[in-house]
Amino acid sequence: MIGTGPDWLLAIPPLLVVLVGIAFVPFPSRRLGHGLAAATLGIVAVWTLFVPDGTGPTTTFLGLEVVLVHVDDASRLVGLALSAFGALAVGYTYLVGTDDRHLLLALAYVGASLWTVFVGDWLGLALGWELMAVASTLLVWYCGGEAVRAGYRYALVHAVGGGLLLVGVALHWVAVGPSPTALQYDGSGVSAGLPAIAVGLAVGVNAALIGVHVWLPRTYAAPHVGTSVILSAYTTKVAVYAAYRAFPDGNLALATVGAAMTVYGAAYALAQKDMRKLLAYHIQAQVGYMLAGIGLGSALGVAGGFGHLFNNVLYKGLLFMIAGFVVVRTGKNELDGFGALGRATPLLFLSFLVAALSITGVPGFNGFVTKGMILDAAAEADATLLEALLLAGAVGTFVSFMKFGYYAFLEGERAAVRDLSVGDAAVALPIAGACLLLGLYYPALFAILPATDAWSTDPYSNAHLYKAVVLAGGSLVAFVAVKPLFGRVAGGRDVDVVRDPFVFWGTRALTGALERAFARTDSWVARAGWETVTAVRNPDAMIAAVLPRSLEARYRDRLERTPGKSGLKTSVGMTVALAFAALAVALVVALTF
After folding, report:
1. Helices (DSSP H) in 3-29: which residue ranges?
2. 233, 235, 240, 238: which is closest to 254 by C-alpha?
3. Do residues 377 and 304 make contact, with C-beta atoms less than 8 angstroms apart?
4. Which of 84, 113, 103 is nearest to 15 (CA)?
């Protein structure tokens, strides 16, 4: 069934379908506009299932051939996750009250993401990368309030990341030999050395690597809850996809950093009281698992990394939806600010339990399957440190979602809020059902993973089940042990505490130095220009000033004997030429020193 459609499907770029959806947005009926937009993303999801592997049409841009459609196992899986979730996310934004302009920007963001995934060359990917940054920034800014400030930081960080990607692509083009098809994917990734470093850093920015990640919790917690749901699925996942394109054979540094991210993100999630900040830090942690699998480079690791990407889009998107439903009902973001929701909202609580059990990797849920694949890949590679970090991150994930569930649904007085409506349930429960289905009937998940004939695994082996029980039991003990500390910790102090002042004062110092250098240069140029004008008006004095003393006396003596005539016979043109030459020398000296 998968990939068995006709070849003409390759001639339809998914972005074109999304643009059709954008055309429906101005409809007078808000419900109809959102419904048609969701339907177009549903059509893209169906397209990803049936379109055959291969490449579609090309176009020429900047003298290079851009492949508009490139379908393989990796792009199909990521495209399916992004488009299917996008259809449900559009429905969610309708339920939480976003307007048509918000929908327009959201569709532009989703469309740019799908372009980036399905394009078949580095130039096209870089263009999509920039379009994603612009669309997502505008989406955040549109929400107003605190989101504007967060969006400004977001824009600055992604401008740097986009610049690094363009530099890396340009260096790669030079390294492979300039030609119209030089940037098309050939399965070898980017060239080693500076191209790989630049592209790797660019991927790191969008994937929220440690040190360049603070944009993630700040931005995803600030805007409208509908915006947070949209943001949760795209930028970081496309970055994981780009990491695979850059390093298809793996990269140990990438795997190690990814494993460290699982611990770092989970640790900072534990410190959060704001629901969406907690979930945002867990995006970083979960992306760490994906990068670890891809960085290991084995068939099992890559399949596990992409499978975890697919699953994460589902359960993390559902968790952001649940947090949004809570915010809409209570008006509060803090976990300890609204009482126990569990008895008042059984459907909401059930949806949370499914999503939480999925992200923590409990047997029977989709996260258990793919997290186990990544751990197995680390064990097969004898990467003991990586495996230890991944397990530590798993414990942190368990404990943080025990915290989320306890404070949001169980602790405190019963909250008087309404449960999920029929429309709410129509969005949330299908995602919860998919998390459970792919955990129990995992062959359906395996069918869309890359290189299915190159790896094998038994998710429900005794070893996997034993490890899951030990992790769950150890995490429960850890939760009981650290629970008294939760009331004393509110957010923690992340790297921005040091980085932001450094950037602010460093930029201020650099700006001051540049201003002073410009002022000196301006002064030197003005003085040189004035002296040049003076010399043109009084060439006798200029010539006398530059002559050696022995010649200066003879020159002045001749001036006295022949008043009104200079000692050197020059034409007007020569005088002007000398003046310009003097000015040029002065400019060079001023700009050089």
Report:
1. 14-24
2. 240
3. yes
4. 113
Query: At how many degrees (to 10) do helices 346-360 and 422-440 cross?
Result: 30
Contact present, 373 and 303 (Cβ < 8 Å):
yes
Give CA–CA dist 289/358, Å, rounded.
14
Query: Which residues, in sequence order, are CB contacts of 176 under 8 Å at separation 6+?
Result: 182, 191
- In this structure, the chain runs to a length of 593
pTM of the model: 0.83
pLDDT per position as a tens digit, 470-525: 999 999 999 888 887 776 655 455 555 555 565 555 556 655 665 677 677 767 76
Whole-angstrom distance, CA of residue 534 vs CA of residue 91 = 75
Is 214:272 a contact under the CB 8 Å cutoff?
A: no
What six digits make up the tokens of 259?
Answer: 């494993």
Please state the φ and ψ torsions of residue 414, each to the nearest 5 degrees.
Answer: -60, 130
The DSSP code for 593 is -
Contact 438, 311 (CB under 8 A): yes
How would you write 533-567 as a 3-class SS string? HHHHHCHHHHHHHHCCHHHHHHHHHHHHHCCCCCC
Q: Using the structure block, give the residue that is written with the tokens 């509060």.
A: 332
Structure tokens at 305: 């990394």
User: What whole-number distance in Å separates Cα of residue 391 and Cα of residue 258?
Assistant: 13
What three-state secondary structure class fits 274? strand
pLDDT digits (tens, 9 = 90+) for 18-47: 998 888 787 778 888 899 999 999 999 999
Listed by start position, the domains of the chain span: 1-245, 249-493, 499-592
- Beta-carbon count within 10 A of 52 CB: 15
For residues 363 and 369, give the distance between their C-alpha atoms in angstroms, rounded to a whole number.
8
121: tokens are 């060359």
Q: Specify the DSSP element, H or E, that contains 67.
A: strand 64-67
Pairwise CA distance, residues 299 & 140, whole Å: 37
Three-class DSSP category at 55: strand
CA dihedral 410, 415, 421, 426 (to 10 degrees): -20
